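Exercise: predict the structure of this protein bound to calcium ion.
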Amino acid sequence: MSILGLVVWLVIGAWSKEELIVNGDFEQPLSNGWTEETEGTWSSIMQSPYYDGDEDYEVKVSTEAGPHCETYAYLWQTVNTPNPHIVEFSGKAKFETVAYQSEGSWAVAQLIVVYADAGGNYLGDTRMYNYPYGSWQSDATHHAIEIAGGVWNEFSFNVGEEVDNNLSGVNSANVKKVQIKITANGFGAQICIGKDATATTYADEISVRTETGVEEEKISVDGIHFSQVSPNPFGEKTEIRYQLEGQKKPISLKVYSLSGNLIETLIDEEQEPGCYATHWNAKNIPSGIYFIQLKTERFEDTRKAIIMR
Ligand SMILES: [Ca+2]
Ligand SMILES: [Ca+2]
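Solution:
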């Protein structure tokens, strides 16, 4: 990395981390940021420092189902994520489930990351779950990850990559909202008089944040090498370099605003293999953060560009 590159990275890195979840560490009352819903006498959502050995508070989302009833406890929060490729999810969770399965009871504990469009319509989800009474299959809009019960787990992923890699039925470009849902569900069958099924999800350090540091160069599966945008930040004009390998293919190079609106189409055509340099003249574009997206049928990559005057 050149000295100039290092300076740019430090400047951008200093600006560009933003936590979107409110009270994701559960140190404040749950009414700050979170929404609760429970069904059933023995369902509860509580915070305490004693669910985990560390010093601070965690949350416990729990349900206990008696005979003939299905009960649950849900805790959730929704945030806006203009560009999922710069959004990182992370969190800690522990799952516990017990049910008299031989009598038909069941229990499930989950930490779910739900993807929605700008209007809040459900697109798909990633669910970390503990359900010892059978395995769930992933499909085009659900990524089901089975987690052993009884121990704390740490999870983290880039939202855009998760959708691209594991949810074939969801277009990551449409993901404009992410909902974190901490849940416990139970069903009590007919025999027992007491509590037939219990499910508990403990959680802490839930984070959904934007990270817009300078990305490393990377080689794609579709024979594209998207190089750095330079200069960056810039005042009027910058140069975007990329390389195409393999065969002639349709590509597009487009500029989007932070909120996902198309600003300009720089290229939209078939191109032969080779090295390309394109200029973006942004003289009439306001200062701010923009995303330059290079796309083919099988590949999509985005670079941040900053106009600073
Ligand atoms: Ca905490
Ligand atoms: Ca603790």
